[in-house]
Inverse folding.
């Protein structure tokens, strides 16, 4: 048994069941806006409908490489041939029901980190939580490029605000590859902003155990350790891609 992608079974297609690109909202009738009368005559106010959070999350998901994985990487498909993997699945499911915390899992490539994190991500997407998926090297590279290019400050600020303020942020392959001072500074800036907002959930997968993150940058690692609490895991599984 392993945690390679399983075949998609009927009823396990979250993107289709959610209606990717076609969120049906009776409240705003799919306009994305709520118009309310606030005074006599024609005085009205216009506010964003709550469905827009899901629409933005689905749009971002469709543009990421996580969309197809969500249809495969479910809790049901996660195999538990060992006690350690059974514990990981149980804790991940407990995390979905717990108050806002962080979740950190490390392990070798192909050991199931992305699978379990994607299952958590899917759970909250299904509840309508505004979520954002960030592949660390790609996201960090884009932000560092914005900081050194002639792009407007508004563009950079909008990117950082999204990472800091989204209800659930999933950082995949955190600190993968060579880690520069700019990487460490950026990681601290993002995670410290989220640390100061206890209601925000953060999911992090990495090849590095948290002890190594703390060695690289104690301030960042310490914040992860405090917020993740009992949800700091190490995947023991071998790389199924090398043992298929």
């Amino acid at each position: 048994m392993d945690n390679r992608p399983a075949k998609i079974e009927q009823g396990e297609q979250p993107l289709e069941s959610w209606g990717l690109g076609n969120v049906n909202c009776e409240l705003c009738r799919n306009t994305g806006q709520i118009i309310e009368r606030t005074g006599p005559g024609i005085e009205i106010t216009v506010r964003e409908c709550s469905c827009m959070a899901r629409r933005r999350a689905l749009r971002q998901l469709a543009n990421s490489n996580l969309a197809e994985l969500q249809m495969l990487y479910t809790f049901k498909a996660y195999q538990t041939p060992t006690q350690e993997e059974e514990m990981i699945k149980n804790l991940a499911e407990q995390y979905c029901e717990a108050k806002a915390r962080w979740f950190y899992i490390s392990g070798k490539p192909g050991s199931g980190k992305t699978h379990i994190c994607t299952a958590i991500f899917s759970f909250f997407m299904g509840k309508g939580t505004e979520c954002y998926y960030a592949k660390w090297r790609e996201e960090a590279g884009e932000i560092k490029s914005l900081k050194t290019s002639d792009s407007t400050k508004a563009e950079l600020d909008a990117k950082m605000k999204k990472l800091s303020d989204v209800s659930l942020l999933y950082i995949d392959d955190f600190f993968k590859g060579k880690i520069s001072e700019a990487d460490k500074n950026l990681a601290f800036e993002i995670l410290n902003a989220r640390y100061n907002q206890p209601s925000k959930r953060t999911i992090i997968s990495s090849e590095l155990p948290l002890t190594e993150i703390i060695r690289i940058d104690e301030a960042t690692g310490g914040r992860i350790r405090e917020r993740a609490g009992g949800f700091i895991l190490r995947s023991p599984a071998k790389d199924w891609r090398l043992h298929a």
User: Anything to note?
Assistant: Strands lie at 33-37, 44-48, 102-106, 131-135, 168-172, 201-206, 232-234. The chain has one domain: 54-242.
